[in-house]
Amino acid sequence: MNTKLGILALLEARPGKSEELAAFLEQGRELALAEEGTVTWYAFMVDETTYGIFDSFASEAGRQAHLEGEIPRALAQVGGELLAKEPDIRLVELIAVK
Fold first, then answer.
1. What is the CATH number of the domain that holds 31?
2. Which of 32, 44, 64, 65 is the most buried (most CB within 10 A)?
């Protein structure tokens, strides 16, 4: 499969909500597993308040299906409680993949 597209989402936890945000991201793995068009899905921590999600896709259709899927809907439901600000979501093109 030719993985060529991605999404990078950076999330800043509200004070005192870091552990809850991390738990939410862990639960997101199950939702990502159900997405046929998502090739890889990573949730990560940068520091005590900064978290992120990186996903990759072989097609724009897969990326759009993800953007319209369960993970963004779930994040929208808890974002006001867990996030200090709106997520920084960037659509990226992958240059090299191993």
1. 3.30.70.100
2. 32
pLDDT in tens, the chain (98 residues): 689 999 999 999 999 999 999 999 999 999 999 999 999 999 999 999 999 999 999 999 999 999 999 999 999 999 999 999 999 999 999 999 88
Phi–psi pair at 29, nearest 5 degrees: -55, -45
Helix segments in 1-98, DSSP class H: 18-33, 60-67, 70-82
C-alpha distance from residue 6 to each of 47, 55, 91 (Å) = 22, 5, 6
Query: What's the number of domains the chain is made of?
Result: 1
Per-residue tokens: 90 = 């960037």
| Domain carrying residue 83 | 5-93
Distance CA 82, CA 77 (A): 10
Whether residue 98 is contained in a domain is answered as no
